[in-house]
Every structure is written in C-alpha cells, then in structure tokens.
Amino acid sequence: MAAEESAAPTRIMVAVNESTIKGYPHASISSRGAFDWILSKIVRANTSGFKLLFLHVQVPDEDGFDDMDSIYASPEDFKTIQRRDKIRGLHLLEHFVNHCHEIGVACEAWIKIGDPKEVICHEANHVQPDFLVLGSRGLGPFQKVFVGTVSEFCVKHSDCPVIAIKRNASQIPQDPVDD
Amino acid sequence: MAAEESAAPTRIMVAVNESTIKGYPHASISSRGAFDWILSKIVRANTSGFKLLFLHVQVPDEDGFDDMDSIYASPEDFKTIQRRDKIRGLHLLEHFVNHCHEIGVACEAWIKIGDPKEVICHEANHVQPDFLVLGSRGLGPFQKVFVGTVSEFCVKHSDCPVIAIKRNASQIPQDPVDD
Fold it and tell me: Is residue A173 less than 8 Å (CB to CB) from chain B?
C-alpha cells in the first residue's frame, strides 16, 4: 500500500457559506455538516491523504445599505461594504482553515463574488478537484420550487463528481429554509 | 487521531452491474470505474477505515428465451434462466469481492432482482450506508432523454448522500449508450 500512500493527496473541494439565520455567527449549519462529514467519513485518520479546497462565494449584498443612507450613498460607502464583506468572508474561511491546521490536513481557501451555483461550477471546472462536496438543506419538493438547489445545478454542470450532504434532522432550524 | 482510527469503518455502498456490450465479459466499464475511484480517491492506504457493500441488481432478462424455443418454454426453462442469471451475478460480484480481499478491505456483496434504480434506493435506505457510489455513463442531455439515469433517481430517493462517477473519456465505447 506504500505506493498509494505516497500518491498525490485526494483533492476535495468544499463550498462553504455563511449562516442565513439573523444573528447567527459564521458558517452555515450545512457547511459545517459537510465539513464534519468529510473529516469523519472520508479523511478519518488518514490526514496526509487529502487536501481540502474551501471556496466561499459571496453574493453581492442587496441589503448592504440597510444601515446607511441609501439616497446619499457615496463611493466611500461601497468601499465600506466591500471591506466589510471581505472581512466576513475571511472570518468564515478562518474557521475551516484553522480546524484543518489543528488536525494536520492540508488546505487552501479562497473567496469569489457572484451567483453561488455558477461560480462553484466555474471554479470546480477550473481547479479540477477529485470531487466536490456541497452542504445541502435537504429541502422537500415543495420548498425546492421556491428555493432551488445549488447541488442539482452543480451535478449537471460540474466536470467532477459531486456529493451533497444533507443536514441532520437534529440540526434543522425552525424554518427549514434557514441555514 | 487514534480515536478516529478506532471508529467504525465508513460504509460505502456501490451498485455494480454487468457490461451491456455483447461478448464483453463481466463488470461494466462504469462499475469498474466507480470501484477504482473509491479505492484510489477515498480508501487510499487506509484499508481498515472502510467497508464496501456491493449490490448487484439483476433485471429480469427479456431476451432470456433468445437461445431456446420460446413457444414451448417449460417451467424447467425458467429455472435454467434463473440458475444462469444467478451464476452470472455471483461471477460479477466475485470480481469485486476478490479484489477487496486481496488488498484487505472489508466487504459484503448481495444480489437483488428488479428495477435497478428502485431496488438500489430501497436497499440503500434499508442498509443505511454512509454514502452510495454509482457508476455513470456520463451521457449528454440528448442521450439522457432516451436512456434516463439511475443516479438522478437515486439522488432524489435515497436517504444517504449519493455520488455518481462518470466514465473517463478514454473508456467510452463506440456507442456511448453501451457500457
């Protein structure tokens, strides 16, 4: 088995996002679920056999002007939002990267801005991981009609294999559309 | 990491089938691709960390009477077909089970009869693996209309995460619908 052990690590790309729950800090429930699943079910004790690639896609924030005067927004206001978004994004990735460093799993992390499903597929097809892991809210058919799923889109449009990890029933918030 | 190493192995269910190419022996190209992918990308050198569960679903053979007189088929003829199917199924599973034994990966294997996509989901929901791996022919949208895909059905109807492994371009036979 020595030959396999010395082979290049399996590169797993993971798309992570912030929680949508108001006041809820940092990574979404489904992002953390996907990360925990990778560590416990795939990496296990073989920490040198894998490399994790964390992508965080930021959606341009439509509510960005909620807490300032939208009528008199200046170029400086836009810069403030961009700075704030960047800090939030880095803070989100820090959670995952720090955990990887603690347990000795190699990783990379980066931020892109745009429509998550399209950016995830574009980055996956560019970076060419061995597979792509997506956290999923595990919505029923009725909820999907309104919310759509990133994972269905990525299964169709990514060159690499895609696996969606649904949240545990115990982790589902009051409104299943929250995350 | 000792705690993780001593944890119960990750149980990976794999659906395998026979090649549809006439005269082509044993496992389909996509089944072998999925198996190789699991070993090289997931199991790697950590052979004690995983257990593979091989399911082979046999479709009742509509062409079973091709080589005998269909008008005068007797109950004995049906038994002959069933015996032959069983031997072919065992032979298929033997390929995967033997390979697992050689490299020291725990495994189980079993045969069911019925509609593959429905039986795979039923068995997955019964056996509750950590995830399900399916070989896929990686057909384009035009071909899918006529052929359908087992993996799309299983993503929707399985409780566990599902990952479809497409064939390599180099492994595609002359007619991509073949496997």
Answer: no
**CB atoms A49 and B44 under 8 Å:** yes
- How many C-beta atoms surround the C-beta of residue B4 within 10 A? 15
Q: For chain B, which residues score pLDDT lower than 50?
A: 1-3
How far is A9 from A81, CA to CA, in rounded Å?
A: 38
Residue A126: CB atoms within 10 Å? 8
At A122, the pLDDT band (50, 70, 90 cuts) reads very high
All residues at 6 or more sequence positions from B7 whose CB lies less than 8 Å from its CB, including other chains:
A40, A44
Pick from B49, B131, B162: CB nearest A45: B49
Kindly provide the b/e burial profile for residues A59-86, where b requires at least 16 CB atoms within 10 angstroms of the residue's own CB: eeeeebeeeeeeeeeeeeeeeeeeeebe
H/E run at residue B163: strand B162-166
Q: How many CB atoms lie within 10 A of CB A129?
A: 22
Contact A91, A38 (CB under 8 A): no
Smallest Cα distance from A89 to chain B, Å: 27
Are B162 and B117 in contact by the 8 Å Cβ rule? The answer is no
Distance from CA of A119 to the nearest CA of B (A): 21
pLDDT at A137: 80
What's the confidence (pLDDT) of residue B1? 44
What is the end-to-end Cα distance of chain B in Å, rounded? 41
Summarize pLDDT for A21-64 with one digit per residue, the tens: 766 658 999 999 999 999 999 999 999 999 999 999 998 865 55
What band does A17 get if pLDDT is binned at 50, 70 and 90? Answer: very high
Q: Are A16 and A110 in contact (CB under 8 A)?
A: no
| Any A CB within 8 A of B96 CB | no
Give the integer Cα–Cα distance in Å for A39 and B4.
9
A85 compared with B57, residue with greater pLDDT: B57
Q: What is the pLDDT of residue A148?
A: 55
First to last CA, chain A: 41
